[in-house]
Amino acid sequence: MKHPLSIRDLVNLLYQSRDVIELLFGSKDSVNKAEILARDDMSDEKLEKLVSYEIIHENNQTIGLDDRIVTFIEEFLEIGEVTTSFINDNIQSLNENLKYYRIDSNTRFLRNIKRSLKKISSTTSREVMKLHKNIDDTYKNQDNYLIKLQELDKYKAKRDDIINLIKESEQIISEAQGFFNTVIDAELNSIVSDLRYVLVRNRDYLSEIQSQIIDYINRIQYQAAIYKKIQRLKELKDYEELKYKTNFIDVVTGTRALMFQRRNPLKARVSLDLLYSDRGYTITRKLAGKLNLLRNHQQKPAGRMEDGFDANMLEESTSLNIDSLVEKFMDSRSDLFQFVINYKFPDKVGTLSLEKRISLYVGITIDYDHKLSISGKLGKMDYVNEKKQKLKLGYAIIKPARKPVS
């Protein structure tokens, strides 16, 4: 038999055991006794005291929090399951005390009436908030579709129960309004007025909750239907029957959703003026860094060039009459690249390599652009480099500019 415990001793005991109570309440399930005793803030004596005062219970070496403590914490924190019995109990208590006060106008019954009215207000608001929280938690955290639907149906029924209790409370207040008017008590009138407002507010809130439940149920059913179809498609795919037993390929082919379309990258070209600016330099440097093009950005300065290093180039350039070459191109019907590549130069010039002919093509494009017409089209040429690799070379198709008609 447990000894009587004063409120002060109970508060001290709960405070000293707050970490263990938090652990047991958070786990919801029982915890092994050895795990509890291994804590620095717990001893055999303290554990026996908590068991003797029925704060915790022990069964087969497992420790759990007493259901009354769990219920108290949940009600205080406004969490846990929705319990409409609290509202109903306060309504019954209000009816009884109204009946008793009509028989005997004792102030004790009047105090009980006020207390019941206040509890109806607080418990109704609390249960409505718990209902809303539990509905959200069920929809967001419950993985099983079937259990999720059953849970929402349960909360839908509890929502209807709370609505009926609110209507019953409003009816009692309405029928007792004449009695309240005869009682000269300002506090009672204030409590009744506040309760009316709370009941109306909660009733409106429950209407929104009803719409939310219906919306959640519709979403779940829609998601469940899609999930079943996906399961069926996966089953057909696993058995390699998707292509032959369904029109899956036709449906996907006919889909014009953006996510199924081929992605064409934008080929926006940056202007040369921007690239020559400080901002353009910063952008190109960042881009080069991402493309690992700055590996050799720290290069040694070039050494001294030997005298006469450009003698061969000078001789070759003087041997080429570029103006004459361009004039011949202006009278031809070929494009500039093919003209330069296939042009037979004089013997004194010698044989020009492909690289030198391309350089000549680029130089003419730059120096004689006023005589040329760039069509914007591209041509391609196959060639073999020094390493015997077959490559493709792209070039701009450039034609002689048309002379204006006089």
Considering the chains and any ligands shown, give keywords for the structure.
8% strand; 406 residues; Arc Repressor Mutant, subunit A; 3 domains; 18 helices
Overall description:
With 406 residues, the chain is mainly alpha-helical. The protein folds into 3 domains: 7-75, Arc Repressor Mutant, subunit A, CATH 1.10.10; 79-233; 319-400. 63% of the residues lie in helices and 8% in strands. It has helices at 7-16, 18-27, 33-37, 44-52, 67-77, 85-103, 107-141, 145-175, 177-182, 186-238, 242-245, 248-254, 272-276, 278-290, 311-319, 322-330, 336-342, 354-367; strands at 31-32, 56-59, 62-65, 372-384, 390-400. Strand 2 and strand 3 form a beta hairpin. It is elongated, with a radius of gyration of 45 Å.
How many beta-strand elements? Answer: 5
Strand composition percent: 5-15%
Structural class: mainly alpha
Q: Please compute the radius of gyration using only Cα atoms.
A: 45 Å
Biggest beta-sheet profile = 3 strands, antiparallel
* Principal-axis shape: elongated
Give the % helix: 55-70%
| Order of strands across the main sheet | 1-3-2
Number of helices: 18
Which H/E pattern describes the elements?
HHEHHEEHHHHHHHHHHHHHHEE
Low-confidence stretches: 309-318
What is the terminal separation in angstroms?
126 Å
Number of domains: 3
